[in-house]
Amino acid sequence: MSPVFPMLTVLSMFYYMCLRRRARTATRGEMNSRRAIESNTRALPINVEIVQYAKEVLDFSSHYGSENSMSYTMWNLAGIPNVYPSSGDFTQTAVFRTYGTWWDRCPSARLPFKRTPSTFCSQDYVELAFEEPVYPTAVHILETYHPGAVVRILACSANPYSQNPPAEVRWEILWSEAPTKVNGPQARQFTPCIKQINFPTNLIRLEVNSSLLDYYTELDAVVLHGVKERPVLSLKTSMIDMNDIDEDEDEEKYGCGMDTLNKQFSIVTLREWPTNGYFDKLPYELIQLILSHLTVPDLCRLAQTCKLLYQHCCDPLQYIHLSLQPYWARINDTSLEYLQSRCTLIQWLNLSWTGNRGAISVSGFSRFLNVCGSELVRLELSCGHFLNETCLEVITEMCPNLQELNLSSCDKIPPQAFNHIAKVGSLKRLILYRTKVEQTALLSILNFCSELQHLSLGSCVMIEDYDLIASMMGAKCKKLRSLDLWRCKNITESGIAELASGCQLLEELDLGWCPTLQSSTGCFTNLARKLPNLQKLFLTANRSVCDTDIEELAANCTRLRQLDILGTRMVSPASLRKLLESCKDLSLLDVSFCSQIDNRVVLELNANFPNVFIKKSFTQ
């Protein structure tokens, strides 16, 4: 046979790979970005494009606003734009709870999970429903202040308005990119080039990472463009870009979720190799150390290579700390079942964002904890909407050593279920942000969990008397180091006095948007005098904060690192100078909307105290 034919075969295969890569429309870029080498691919047949705004906000992980209001809440993403194309800080937009890295540099900061894939950097999310399922052709995100937080856009196969739930729920990544720094806070329309998918969708999910931002990002609306009929790409291309053949093919090969991983978990037949290479020569502990740097999918792939590495990859010591949050889209009961034998020694488990829309059942979760819960010290369940009272009961029974429990935004748990948490007397950290915990259950928790060091009660709207809660904290929780009372509606100077007297180890206190606290009662000066270890104090939107309060902080809280006094009208530049001169470790000072602190003062303070990030927000 002529040697020409093998060469033609190779060239044909190469050309096919190029066309296949070109057919995938997933690329990265911003509004109006284009590939360096464009194709003239066109959709056949031509469909009328449907343009629609989000009809409803279905789910989200956090927001800056109140549960009983529309200001700064995720619900503002539904419907037509309220603000765009204007730039600035507007209450009619959607704002997430955090920005920057300040939350990673305070006493309540949690240690990160190792083995998190470098491609997963999402911190928050919001899910939006649209009227008509379409094959997406474009997604426009209207950002009105400090843009650049969106890092991933996903589409779901499930129709939230369908009466018949699908047998399988699929999520596809339309676009993803690492966090980027955007110059300037001005509004923009963000339109990344998205991947074509093979199913219609009317459920879009945005995931954000605000770590590089100088302030809260604000989103106004999301526009979905799409067609009713699935586009068929023609194969006419003008030129092939060699850069198109890259590592993104691995994403297609392995998928973005756990379908392939589930199969790999269950593999019992291994390839027969004559030897295990030189791994036989290495100490067991050294191999374990090497494998500890692999992600969970990589461990599963490596387990298929030989029996020796299979044994190492299935060793429970590799799963002492396990985060399944990066794979939330594909984690289900089957995944947990496959992992059971490997997680008998697990101490840290992150199931945040997983299990929704029926992916994890109560029985599946219970079976997993029955086998793997005895050694658990830390359990992250943020936004776990499958959780109910039975799940909390199982946690308290099967996890006797539990010290950290995160139920942030688990707003489907019924109020009476939280009583079970009081059985875990070893708890040191409890996060109940945006839950329906009631006063009776919380009092019981505080009474029996006297080891608590970190407690988050932000946006817990069903607590009737925060003064009583604060009094119980002061009496029982002497070791408390951080306390989040964000948007607590009814705490007064009486509760603050009890708290300051009993919890003198407090290093972090968030009293943002607590309207019942008034400086004239002396509550803030009392805090400053009783809590000398304070490193973070948020008094956001309390207009009564005055020079006396700032001077007391300067005199007594010299370890202060972060201070938020957004919105006060009674703080002068002179008192801020005293604070900055006294608190040498201060790194964040938010004076947005402080009427006496204009831009000229901020520039002066920045020049004299360059190590402090002084934030002054604006509205146009």
TrEMBL record:
SUPFAM superfamilies noted in UniProt: F-box domain, RNI-like
The keyword Iron-sulfur is annotated on this UniProt entry: no
One Gene Ontology biological process: SCF-dependent proteasomal ubiquitin-dependent protein catabolic process
InterPro entries named among the record's database cross-references: F-box-like_dom_sf, F-box_dom, FBXL15_LRR, Leu-rich_rpt_Cys-con_subtyp, LRR_dom_sf
Domain F-box stretches: 276-331
Gene3D superfamilies in the record: Ribonuclease Inhibitor
Record's keyword terms, sorted: Leucine-rich repeat, Ubl conjugation pathway
Any Gene Ontology CC annotation: SCF ubiquitin ligase complex
Superkingdom in the source lineage: Eukaryota
Protein name: FBXL4 protein
